[in-house]
Amino acid sequence: MGVYRAEYIWIDGTQPTQKLRSKTKIVPKGDKPPIWGFDGSSTQQATGDRSDCVLQPVSTCPDPIRGGDDLLVLCEVMLVSGQPHPSNMRRSNADMAGRFASFDTWFGIEQEYTLFRGMRPLGFPDSGFPAPQGGYYCGVGADEVFGREVVEAHLDACLKAELRISGINAEVMPGQWEFQVGPLNAPQIGDQLWLARWLLYRVGEPFGISATLYPKPVRGDWNGAGAHTNFSTNEMRRDYDACIAAAEALATRHDLHIANYGFGIEERLTGLHETCSYKEYRYGVSDRGASVRIPWQVAKDKQGYIEDRRPNANHREAIIGHETAGRPCREATERETKKGRGLGPLRSVREAAVAAERETVLTSWRAAVRARRLYGNR
Question: Where are the alpha helices (DSSP H) in the chain?
Answer without folding.
Answer: 90-99, 148-160, 188-204, 240-251, 254-260, 265-268, 296-301, 317-320, 326-339, 343-375
